[in-house]
Design goal:
By secondary structure, the protein is of the alpha/beta class. The chain contains 13 helices and seven strands. The strands form two sheets. The protein has a five-stranded mixed beta sheet with strand order 3-2-1-4-5. Strands 6-7 form a two-stranded antiparallel ribbon.
């Protein structure tokens, strides 16, 4: 084989095993189904050594689907100096009318699209970035679990026609009122006490995760970006951390329009001939980042102003960042009012504001200088 040849390897990964197919470079070579290997570190390293021994002058290129198995295979292979790519299952080309799906065929198809360069690799976050993302998602899950428990308790009280006359729900006074409540039946009293216990535990869990996330994000290499985008209205610490943890390095997007499309906030389109029809947003990409942006966009329904809490968040930030944030607030508040006066649906208006918010987040991130990653720890970077 030539010194500059490439060996293409497709892998259909699973929890217990990995199906492998490979093909040397050149049209005259067919795709060969190797078989199954265990999905362990030792087995995959042995597989790479076998390929290197059989094709000593070839560069190994691996491709597998992104899924629940995570990125550990990617990191393992790139640390050994090999090229590895991940592809989203939804972006894999499929023949119409294809009815048979097996692990063997999946591995062969992955090898084929790698050899034909007919795929778009996904972005792989750094290990630290993924850890912050996991912590941010755990906090969001804890918040959802707490709200679910609260809804169940409120439903129990509603069925028994019990109302709280105070002003603030779930305050200390409200919790004290709940603990002192006596329901007509003993079974219902047991249910009430269990629900109160669950809510108390989940409140403590949420508080612990909030404290950990606040502490850990300050040690993160993307914290300067997280701090800078908090200059925007509607973007506090949790929203800023969640957005950056989900999207990662924003510098890989050349234009804000690409970032809008990546988050799934651009309208879908069905055009033919001279007609052009725009539909609802595509909802492609990261749904959690899109949801956080939608939550932040609600704050622009009020007139533009700099509140005390926003002033605190902007302390110590460069003038360029603060100017971008104020420009964004002026534009988005006016745009919100203008769209509402035109009779647009509220959800459509908020989505439009969120779409422009991500553009200003992109602009602010360009003003922040981040520390460079050690090339020894980051051998291969895959663009979005």
């Amino acid at each position: 084989m030539k010194n500059d040849s490439i060996l293409f390897i497709g892998m259909d990964t699973h929890k217990e095993f990995t199906e492998v197919a490979y093909s040397p470079d050149g049209r005259q070579h067919e795709i060969i189904h190797l078989g199954r290997v265990p999905s362990t570190k030792q087995a995959l390293l042995k597989l790479a050594r076998q390929f290197q021994s059989k094709y000593p002058h070839a560069t190994l290129h691996f491709l597998y689907e992104a899924g629940p198995c995570g990125y550990w295979i990617y990191r393992l292979l790139t640390q050994q100096g090999h090229c590895c790519y991940l592809v989203a299952p939804s972006l894999i080309p499929k023949k119409p009318g294809k009815r048979v799906k097996t692990d063997k065929r999946d591995a062969i198809d992955l090898c084929r699209i790698l050899k034909n360069n007919d795929f778009s690799p996904i972005y792989v976050p750094e290990t630290e970035d993924e850890a912050i993302r996991d912590l941010s998602r755990a906090r969001e899950t804890a918040m959802k679990d707490l709200n679910d428990a609260r809804y169940q308790l409120k439903a129990l009280l509603l069925r028994n026609n019990i109302r709280y006359d105070g002003k603030a729900n779930w305050s200390l006074k409200h919790l004290r009122w709940l603990t002192e409540m006596i329901l007509p039946h003993r079974c219902q009293q047991i249910v009430l006490q269990e629900m109160i216990q669950v809510i108390t535990e989940r409140m403590s869990r949420l508080e612990r995760l909030d404290n950990e996330l606040t502490h850990q994000v300050k040690l993160w290499r993307y914290y300067p970006v997280v701090k800078a985008i908090q200059a925007l209205r509607g973007v506090r610490l949790l929203v800023a951390t969640g957005v950056i943890a989900e999207l990662g390095d924003l510098s890989r997007f050349d234009t804000p329009r690409k970032l809008m499309s990546y988050v799934g906030l651009t309208p879908s389109e069905h055009s033919s001939g001279g007609s052009r029809r725009l539909g609802s947003i595509t909802k492609c990409g990261n749904g959690r980042a899109r949801r956080l942006l939608i939550e932040g966009a609600h704050s622009y329904r009020y007139t533009a102003n700099v509140s005390t809490s926003l002033q605190v968040r902007q302390e110590g930030l460069p003038k360029e960042v603060i100017d971008i944030a104020w420009k964004a607030q002026l534009r988005l508040c006016k745009r919100y009012q203008r769209l509402m006066k035109r009779g647009k649906n509220y959800n459509v208006v908020v989505t439009a504001i969120a779409r422009e918010m991500i553009a200003y987040i992109w602009a602010i991130s360009r003003e922040v200088v981040l520390p460079k990653i050690d090339p020894k720890l980051n051998k291969v970077r895959i663009p979005a």
